[in-house]
Known about the structure:
The protein is of the alpha+beta class. The protein has 14 helices and 23 strands.
Amino acid sequence: MLKRLLSHVPPSSRSFSLSAHAPISLFQRRLSPSPLRRSLASISAADLRFGQPVYETHPHVLKAGELTPGISALEYAQRRSKLAAKLPKNSIAIVAATDIKYRSNSTFYEFRQDSDFFYLTGFNEPAALAVIGKTSDQNDHTLQLFVREKEEKAEIWEGARSGTQAAIDVFNADEAYDVTRIQDVLPRIVGNASQVYTELTQPTPGISSFTRFLYGAGPQNKAVADVLQSSKVRSLRPVVNDLRVLKSEAEIRAMRKAGQAAGRAHTKAMAKSFTLEKDLDAFLEYQLRLEGCDSAAFEPVVAGGANALSIHYVRNDDAFRHEELVLVDCGGEYGNYISDITRTWPMNGRFTGPQHDLYEAVLRCQRSCISMCRESASVTLDQLHDIAETALKDQLKQLGFDMSGGAIQTLFPHHLGHYIGIDVHDTPGYSRGNKLEAGNCVTIEPGLYIPFDDRWPKHFQGLGIRIEDSICVQQEHPYNLTAEAVKEVVDIENLRS
């Protein structure tokens, strides 16, 4: 198995060079000699073309030893070893990459890798499959990758592919196959396993040939599907969730970078005046990239006035009114790790009396809940939600609200927070009833949304306020990943003074 990682090899000891004709041994990328036999391959640096950035081609994106921004080849190997350690003897885990998703006809959406596949491999191309197995000594793992082979004609249209050789030499697979051989090889691998951990028995239908093979009809399709539907198949998601929910130092640094960039973008937006929601939307997108993010983490909410009463308002096509609030929910993404921030501020730079009172109620609640995001507090997200409901209910009573019956559920209809990481709603299915541990990353986002209804005080009707930060749980203190986004009333108003 793989014993030595590139991140442990000082750059001076490697023969990589970006001069036009310098020979580069692809074996330099391996962790250790592989059991897979192959002949030595050397190529010119000028000919290096992969399906994603590598250090030798993109030193402005990756540091030596990193497989993806901020995450080393060593860490990806350790993740697979931790997964294998959780699996029974002679069992395997099968994880599929995301396929290309089409917007219409031949127009496709920007590709984003399946989160579990990315977490375990760092491979960022479509139409791929990873098989991770436990080795006989129970202390390590094997990795078999099925990837698109390099093909000159296809790469002219679609861009470079990494191919099977790079799957071994860059991504540290023990064995690599052309993805077109899945139907020949995968049934044998599955047949030899004692148990199979996968989510492929719950597929999302697609239209490509790769997706049709996994989920479609036909003799070969049915043979593989029958194997995956057998009694030895178990769900992989809970096992991977237990790993993903505890962030490493490298993951936290990546999320901090995404949070810092997004926080700065929010603060810069608060200091400016905008006429249209779409203008503010465009400004945030530009600032995120300028501050170092790869993209926005999700479609931003830019909701002026009563549009904020719709929690996931993303049309962003209205005009602002002078004394309205604007609610902006916008996070950044860096190296596939995200931040999530919401801020609410007055478009003219000054809060009215009712706006100020309602805003301070939400802010006090958020401060209190963030202070409990530490392992020593021994609380769950569900318990924090209950605490937030009680706090908001008490403050609304002081503002003259009738909080009888289910009033708080009407005015605060969503949960206080969720896990974050590679996904905006990370580790799907992981319970918010688990105690928060050091290494968990969550959002804390209380909000109040006052409908146009005579049950509520008239001067608060139509106001929607949410304040959200991305928080990393530590043993004794919370770590705010998005602190650059100002939120105190005095700080917001001073941005326009």
